[in-house]
Automatic annotation (TrEMBL):
<keyword id="KW-1003">Cell membrane</keyword>
<comment type="similarity">
    <text>Belongs to the GTP-binding SRP family. FtsY subfamily.</text>
</comment>
<keyword id="KW-0812">Transmembrane</keyword>
<keyword id="KW-0378">Hydrolase</keyword>
<protein>
    <recommendedName>
        <fullName>Signal recognition particle receptor FtsY</fullName>
        <ecNumber>3.6.5.4</ecNumber>
    </recommendedName>
</protein>
<comment type="function">
    <text>Involved in targeting and insertion of nascent membrane proteins into the cytoplasmic membrane. Acts as a receptor for the complex formed by the signal recognition particle (SRP) and the ribosome-nascent chain (RNC).</text>
</comment>
<keyword id="KW-1133">Transmembrane helix</keyword>
<keyword id="KW-0472">Membrane</keyword>
<keyword id="KW-0675">Receptor</keyword>
<keyword id="KW-0547">Nucleotide-binding</keyword>
<feature type="domain" description="SRP54-type proteins GTP-binding">
    <location>
        <begin position="277"/>
        <end position="290"/>
    </location>
</feature>
<keyword id="KW-0342">GTP-binding</keyword>
<comment type="subunit">
    <text>Part of the signal recognition particle protein translocation system, which is composed of SRP and FtsY.</text>
</comment>
<keyword id="KW-0963">Cytoplasm</keyword>
<feature type="binding site">
    <location>
        <begin position="194"/>
        <end position="198"/>
    </location>
    <ligand>
        <name>GTP</name>
    </ligand>
</feature>
<feature type="binding site">
    <location>
        <begin position="256"/>
        <end position="259"/>
    </location>
    <ligand>
        <name>GTP</name>
    </ligand>
</feature>
<feature type="binding site">
    <location>
        <begin position="112"/>
        <end position="119"/>
    </location>
    <ligand>
        <name>GTP</name>
    </ligand>
</feature>
Amino acid sequence: LERLRGRLSKSRSVFGQSLLGLLGAGDLDEDSWQDVEDTLLVADLGAATTTEIVDKLRTEITSRGVRTSEEARAMLHDVLTEALATDADRAVRALPHTVDGQKQPAVVLVAGVNGTGKTTTTGKLARVLVAQGSKVVLGAADTFRAAAADQLQTWSERVGAETVRGKEGGDPAAVAFDAVKRGMESGVDAVLIDTAGRLHTKSGLMDELGKVKRVVEKQAKVDEVLLVLDATTGQNGLAQARVFREVVDVTGIVLTKLDGTAKGGIVFQVQRELGVPVKLVGLGEGPDDLAPFEPEAFVSALLG
Ligand code: GDP
């Protein structure tokens, strides 16, 4: 929690200081409520989520009779935690299964627009799985970005995984197919595929990502489609997510770069607007900076 607090320090100054300062000040007049609303909007909660949360805060304050700053903190904690849909299943499905008596690796597609942190997330996730004792194959299916395969290779050497890569500019689906094939032959536990993240046109993305998934499914079940979103991109990130969701069945969101932003409120908006659980959060560029998303801990860290 200490570490999470540290990484979220920018957002913490908004929630744990500005917001709590406003709510802990006793009777709130309309101007103060306007300030609460503005604070939430600036933190990127979005209009709909902000209205919902402000309404809940007003109701709670009236019914509970919040007096002290400790009471304000407890109330804010409850309202924010509840807004994060605590009952969602956030486990990343990365364990192998048995099909017709044969072990089959879990297949995880990692999707997202270039620059969001897709390759880094794939590497960090491999590290987590290897640390848990899993054998992992990485598929460098982002064949369009010149450095992506090298970057993934570096990660796999670092964490002790194997990388399957194709020719630069080659067919992403062919690389994904080969990676799954390799994973099945060598009996690994999970195959993580770093997919291409071009979003020039929706149909281009359909072709690429949709095809990757279809081709992989010729051999194995796709257990998880993680969509990586950059927390600093706000509405843009949400718009991207909607496009991806139309193309493939996104099963989890990874929200990256939460360390560099005061706009951590995007987590609430993503959760509410997309209806897909946030499963992981990126808290820095280092190998250990990927954490499971736990609403309770997240809110505690935000409030200081
Ligand atoms: P891709 O194009 O989506 O594969 O993006 P990359 O994985 O290459 O990441 C783009 C940049 O974002 C790199 O400089 C990463 O180190 C950085 N990055 C990725 N995740 C995080 C994060 O959680 N926090 C911070 N601060 N930087 C990150």
